[in-house]
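Example A, followed by Example B.
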Amino acid sequence: MAQASPRSGSSKDCASKAIQTQHPSDVYCCYSDAAWKGASSAGGMGWTFTNAAGDTRSQRAVACPFVASALVAEALALKEAIKAAISLNIKDLICFSDSRGLINMITASSSVIALQGILHDISVLSLSFSSICFKFVPRLSNTIADRLAKEALSLYLN
């Protein structure tokens, strides 16, 4: 699966030599999150991209009408964020998520049946980057993506 850097074999926790030796302004941080409402099976996804100086390059929120679980919503949010990074021509990316389970599955190359296709897509999309890694971040450090995801879900449900 999509490990810290599919091409350089770097460690799972972003200690990638490729990322460490890049000019810091070339590396973008992507924060993604999802909100899920079990009663309606709807999900909201949000993500934001910042550069090393902390400047926001882009942020987005979308709703998804049929999502099987909160974990699936988290995986879909990350997948959509990676697709957005590709469209922005970002080459070096650190992906942060507050879903420890998702990050563990990606970095340990494990899966559950419900996520196999999405994790495969993330792995394939990861090949588009010079360097990419995946890190867990506490929810309190992911407030912008969290707000975007909740807003998308709320707008969809209303």
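Example B, a separate protein, is given below in the same form.
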Amino acid sequence: LLTAISIERCVSILYSSIRRPQHLSAVVCALLWALSIAVIASVTSLCLLHDHEHCQIALISMYVLNFLIFAPLMVISNVILFVKVLCGSRRHQPKRLYIVIFLTILFFLIFALPLSVWNFLQQFSYTVVPYQVVFLLACINSSINPFIYFLVGSCRRHCSLMSLRVAFQRVFEE
């Protein structure tokens, strides 16, 4: 979903003058969910059948799909978005929304991707750090988004703490 959001934001900024289909985002997200469910179902069924060789191939394929398609698309679209927003016109743009998306993806890459890398390396019996470290990073990633929303939503010109409801409301209004 982060990949879909990144690409959708990038396309909407780059081609703001072109009218895109109204339900494009929902369709893309539904397709990504379907792909995700299909991949997880196939990996789970192969691994539950205790077919070690096919299970390992399915897991490696899943991680390669993540590393070679989804993560690079997310990074490239966010870099394009970031450059376009910084160098683009100075008309009113919902900058807080872009900051939230950028921070969410940045923290995803820092905190969640190591677990995928660790799992991928495990398929080759290679470990660099203990599982507890990458699991802790993944847990941090799972809980950091509300803090991002709060901090970005509560910062205007001066960062001041306000109610959580108002902070969320500001972020999601844009």
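On Example B: Residues 131-173 form one domain.
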